[in-house]
């Protein structure tokens, strides 16, 4: 007697409202991490997202999981900005400009204290997001360098550090008051990146390996 092979069970797709709630939680967490740092109470994040505490914990079992999701989300959006700049802009340096300003709008500076916190920095999702954004930044810069528009003595690490520093408000100032100056100062940075270089930079170009070195 032949028995029927049981049909493989399909993994149920998340409901649209569940996906919306998750997105609202991540957006609220990102905003509050920027405003108050990564230790903001989770119930405050739930309140801003307009969901219950149980919904937050159903999506993110602990703070590290939520922090990691926010970091990955910001890096994914930054990578998407780099992809759009490469695809839509014929001028190589203009693509770099668009990427730098978009990265600042994502508030990448807020990632620094979170990435240096205690959660697993080698989580596969985090490493994949990091590698994607680093690869795309390098591609944007290589294209500008090959076009003779980017000075030769800078590397990916220089741009990543500068964007993070310039998009972070000075100590003791209101972060949203400082926002109105960010793009002005980023444009000053970008003008300094153009070739031909008008000065000699001290030290050597900062690479990704330099950033990872303890």
From TrEMBL:
UniProt domain HTH tetR-type: residue ranges: 19-78
The UniProt record lists the keyword DNA-binding: yes
Coiled coil ranges: none
DNA-binding segment(s): 41-60
Entry keywords, A to Z: DNA-binding, Transcription, Transcription regulation
InterPro entries: Homeodomain-like_sf (IPR009057), HTH-type_TetR-like_transc_reg (IPR050109), HTH_TetR (IPR001647), Tet_transcr_reg_TetR-rel_C_sf (IPR036271), TetR_SbtR-like_C (IPR049445)
One Pfam family this sequence matches: TetR_C_43
Superkingdom of origin: Bacteria
SUPFAM superfamilies, alphabetized: Homeodomain-like (SSF46689), Tetracyclin repressor-like, C-terminal domain (SSF48498)
Protein name: TetR/AcrR family transcriptional regulator
Organism: Streptomyces iakyrus
